[in-house]
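Example with several molecule types.
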Amino acid sequence: MFNILGNLLNLTTFGESHGLAYGGIINNFPAGLTVDFDKIQYELDRRKPGQSAIVTQRKESDTVKFLSGIFDGKTTGTPIGFIIENENQKSKDYDHIANSYRPSHADFTYDKKFGARDYRGGGKSSARETINWVVAGALAKQLLPDIEIKAYVSSVGDIFCEKPYQALDFSKIESNEIRCPDSETAEKMISRIKEIKKEGNTIGGTITCVIKNVPVGVGEPIFSKLQAELAKAMLNINACKGFEYGSGFCGAKMTGKEHNDLFNSDFSTQSNLSGGIQGGISNGMDIYFRVAFKPVATILRPQDSIDKEGNPVIVEGKGRHDPCVVPRAVPIVESLAAFVIADLFLINKTRNIHNW
Amino acid sequence: MFNILGNLLNLTTFGESHGLAYGGIINNFPAGLTVDFDKIQYELDRRKPGQSAIVTQRKESDTVKFLSGIFDGKTTGTPIGFIIENENQKSKDYDHIANSYRPSHADFTYDKKFGARDYRGGGKSSARETINWVVAGALAKQLLPDIEIKAYVSSVGDIFCEKPYQALDFSKIESNEIRCPDSETAEKMISRIKEIKKEGNTIGGTITCVIKNVPVGVGEPIFSKLQAELAKAMLNINACKGFEYGSGFCGAKMTGKEHNDLFNSDFSTQSNLSGGIQGGISNGMDIYFRVAFKPVATILRPQDSIDKEGNPVIVEGKGRHDPCVVPRAVPIVESLAAFVIADLFLINKTRNIHNW
Amino acid sequence: MFNILGNLLNLTTFGESHGLAYGGIINNFPAGLTVDFDKIQYELDRRKPGQSAIVTQRKESDTVKFLSGIFDGKTTGTPIGFIIENENQKSKDYDHIANSYRPSHADFTYDKKFGARDYRGGGKSSARETINWVVAGALAKQLLPDIEIKAYVSSVGDIFCEKPYQALDFSKIESNEIRCPDSETAEKMISRIKEIKKEGNTIGGTITCVIKNVPVGVGEPIFSKLQAELAKAMLNINACKGFEYGSGFCGAKMTGKEHNDLFNSDFSTQSNLSGGIQGGISNGMDIYFRVAFKPVATILRPQDSIDKEGNPVIVEGKGRHDPCVVPRAVPIVESLAAFVIADLFLINKTRNIHNW
Amino acid sequence: MFNILGNLLNLTTFGESHGLAYGGIINNFPAGLTVDFDKIQYELDRRKPGQSAIVTQRKESDTVKFLSGIFDGKTTGTPIGFIIENENQKSKDYDHIANSYRPSHADFTYDKKFGARDYRGGGKSSARETINWVVAGALAKQLLPDIEIKAYVSSVGDIFCEKPYQALDFSKIESNEIRCPDSETAEKMISRIKEIKKEGNTIGGTITCVIKNVPVGVGEPIFSKLQAELAKAMLNINACKGFEYGSGFCGAKMTGKEHNDLFNSDFSTQSNLSGGIQGGISNGMDIYFRVAFKPVATILRPQDSIDKEGNPVIVEGKGRHDPCVVPRAVPIVESLAAFVIADLFLINKTRNIHNW
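Resulting structure tokens for the full complex:
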């Protein structure tokens, strides 16, 4: 249904950038899981503003409070309500855009669709909404203890991590500010962002996500193919412009003979250009995909724009903004992937009477 | 919900490659539309096998029969049931794969998930399912008479249509077998496919889709962003490996200053790197996106594979198959786009009390 | 979602009384069930017109054809499409109501809502739609082999089956035309209906349904309570005016001391005024409920009515109609109950990690 | 979907009796409505414990805080998040039931389904959940300013308000503690409840709800008939045992000739035994229905019961409980009715292209 993430396991959310709070409700989360709250806070901290020199310097504690659905440290099977209170908003920073439309923001479209908008900090269109997703994803991860979901920054501007994911040491993702496990590339990315930031400019990038140990059979044949649910989730992230999995856009240049992914006798496959999915259903190999993010639209320079009546105005990027969205988007990508997998994992428990 | 396309306007489907029929039910289609049945058959004919030398030579009439929801030539507002009977199946062609797993097909994953599978022609995993989507999309197009949805083949293997879509004459899309409006590129693509076909091989490609005249306001802010619903629909197409819209993966290399899409005084924008969508909501500019398709997995050569027990077997690509999926996928991409837009267009009628 | 029965296991349907066919699609039906087609036809025969002297004398074979989702006699886990072709329609019988509104029918409301209607035989509003539900319910019953779902006629007009269900021999339900297991009451009911029929009149009645052996735990705590899903399904049946379960409306006259349902030491309960459900979740005791049906609106006498412009007309009940809906509604009630239980039974497989 | 109220307009909720807070998220509420917060608090006050001598003496302020979706006093079209903090819980009152199962409560079914339960105050199974529904319903009422939704207590035990609703003065509903507009009957009901309370017992009752001025056309033909959506909502209310609309169970005793609801020349009908709905769609006449509530299960007397192991225990009704649920359920019934109507009202804006 509109505006709900997931099907069986599902998430509804609320919150605006400068409202009182963000929060959400997770429906149909199974009972009996002992929740590790530190792990949830750990994921929130990875997304948090102010965590390093290359992200926005806003300071928010981003602490989640669970209001229901957990009793004596365990999930009860009833809806999990949670809330993250907003703090440190500087709404005054936004008075200048109450009547102006910032380029490449949602100001104009919200105004036209809804007749008005909460303009403070982008209101509902703010990427702060993703904080809700990280809470839900961190819980979903705990539901899937055997599945490993790791994302990393695979490019910033034209600096690419050229090594394939198999050649990378994922334990190093958190060892640098940009979350690229190749330290040499990471350094280049970081200095590129610092440069860009100094100019008051911003820059795009990509994130690669790898999911290991998904059992065979996760994904539904029609309209809920695993890759389709992943793509939908990713394209909902603010600034996301593209999704590809397995061979992706490169696969479109190949021939069948090159691309076909031959079986080994243990049912694993040889090239995994398939990206761990066949016919919308996981095949037991690594699932991997890549997500493109455009540069953040708010730049700290004057830009020509228009107001509500179409008159020319100059908008200035005030406030504290990210020069590049990808380091903070890493936990968001992982969280959405975890939630999507968990949803399809749950329905899969019902799909074959011989597995009951 | 799982396995349902759309939200308010929604489609459920059935059918397997060698079953008796395909078909579907369209729910909540508005009443009062005079249906142009020829236009629906026209779209089916564009998808049909056997229409040219570069597609599969199977012959099927692919005629849709409407069973309900239309009376006196007009939609009645009640569910539209339709059926397309299968013909010309050569199930014998598939006996050899009853116990074998073809590389890069869904044979293995279906067997593991469901315990068994209809192996004839791929059963449910066959791309013949898309015939249902074309019926639904052709109806959705008629619901949106002012909106123009045009897709074309933008690459085959490494042959790209280099011109931007604005430089192309869309009236020429149907003028050649490959459905590329640039006739010079089209010729190259066609000869590449003929070459590949002669080798018993297959090749991938991409499709670009452009949607004009979508009114401002179509798309929902959270989890049903217009691009997210489009991505989900596209990634459900067999062989689809990626989706990008607007600046797409290229946008990830750019800076904010380059990428920002400045307004004109009439609320149109200058670069439209945004791809006609801001914050998940259409902004009135052209919506455009690109979809990647891998090469068809069935090649007409012997391939090493395994059987259900993991023993080595040789599978041979029998049957009649497409050397390249993209020319026939053009109407599929358009159809899904039309359905997604129609669904979000309908809910938009309810979202603002001042528009009632 | 609107116009879909069920949640995880779900049914969408199509068909109008005088259209080409009825049919439906069952989504997410588990794989691996060996389908007993005779049992499905048996249920359709119980619902069929023309089966006895006290129901409509229309003759229809009401044969279902499965078009997908079943292979080698077993469900495949993919959507089950089915169709029942219409025959023996006498559309001419309905020309007289194309512009008139029959009292207590949906003619007026359909016309106002949708701007027009298929008036032949009531079109979409015809109770023939329930044929789809019987197919789906007959499959759902087979998914729940240990659960027994039995409905019977508990009243016709003011003739009530006074015995509680525990005192009845359910094996006698099919032993008479009215489907009341108490043969003495059955006779009275039958002669009452014959009388009414002779007058060209119709009469209402109630059906009681008893469901045994539902395991503890079926039903969801909020908004999908077992009784709520049952009530919704039943109130969708044409002519249904009410639903009560357990103590029902009588329970509203009782005190807590009388009504409370004390436990036995084996967790069974003593009075089962609860009706087998506590907090929306099955408690292992018999689930029982009662459904009220108004008299069929089509009577074979002239009635004063109006046409589309509000002018007075006389409408005559032509065609072949049921004098009392309840004997044929028995399998419909059972079918919907089976489908609702199966849906909640399936999700329950996912709700507690200790049961995986 | 499971555990979600509504379809297009939908509500998800959270909260347990002795958790930190209740709350919910309303999705797809239209933009542009000026919210009257006093009216929302007024409805909450009608539901509030401690408001009179015949309801529970718990004291809770029951104040709702809106966290999102409303800006400058108007709905923004984005999700409306709200919270009601719990206070005045006396969790100690419930320690005695941590291991015992109270008769006719959900203790046993929750434990079996979920493996454990929040036993304090009934946890999720507490009727305090309905506070969320009143918030959502109060907003839905404001969306439908021309529609009047009034519920009243029509029976307590065997004391019935014999007058038909047309003979009652609805402005008197709030003039007495029991919310029965017939003051003579109200007095009898109140003294009956006082009597029952003195005995430490409880008693059941019914509520009648009347909805005026619903435009013709609200309700969907299949599976979302107006009466079906109403029934589902009502049967989700704690203690609800039955639902009937229009002629209801009495209609099952009538003949077609008596029951048929003849048209007047202005398309109104004469008897309205139909209850304002034909074929699942509103016909412009008053919609009326009746809901049965069993007596509250918690009685202030010792009762025989069992513990988790099946050993005999005595449970004592401690805490502060309602002797009769119906006076406080009146705003709950109205709220759910308002929400259901609003949901179907919104989709109806999309169902006929001639009304766009």
